[in-house]
Amino acid sequence: MQQLVPPWLEKLLGTAFFSVCRTHGAAARSECNMYCLDCNTDAFCFYCRSSRHKDHQVIQIRRSSYHDVVRVSEVEHLLNIGGVQTYVINSARVMFLNERPQPKSGKAVSHVCEICGRSLLDALRFCSLGCKVVGIKRNGNTSFMLEDISSSTTRMISSSSTRRGEDELREGSQQDIYPPTPPSTSSTRRRKGIPHRAPFGS
């Protein structure tokens, strides 16, 4: 199971965030909304990061409607987040850490979370990272590991780099073979002066 779920993820999902830092409680940015993947311990504040986790791999947790979220850009290089619903909040794409209780409604929905039954916007499997962890433990038919998508991503990057290199090579060849021709001064015609009428004879 550790091969399917990173060892730090479940600890992250069970961590309480947004308490006041005991060391920097009087400071302006003292809320504990950061987590260190290297230390894998408790949440800490902005000032603790500067003093204790300066060179560590740290992600920042944010809140939406009293629930913890993380930006996709902060975890997509660490986890295979496929199958998890994302949302755009304050111009940033985020996903929820854990499931959110949802009152039952009589409306029919097209897509629901496989674990908690929460309605989803897209045809995906999970509403949060926590629900994907539960799904992995139940079925084992998905994973947080990046091996499944790294090869295709590498092929896309390699192909893109190759095409870009070929384009640059072609452009460079054209510049070498066909240098710009400077304007010819011999063929440039001078503009005629303003014609003047000859004076009348007296």
From TrEMBL:
It comes from the Eukaryota. Residues 163-173 have a biased composition (Basic and acidic residues). Residues 155-202 are annotated as: Disordered. InterPro entries: PLATZ. Gene3D superfamilies: Classic Zinc Finger. Coiled coil: none annotated. This is PLATZ transcription factor family protein. It comes from Helianthus annuus.
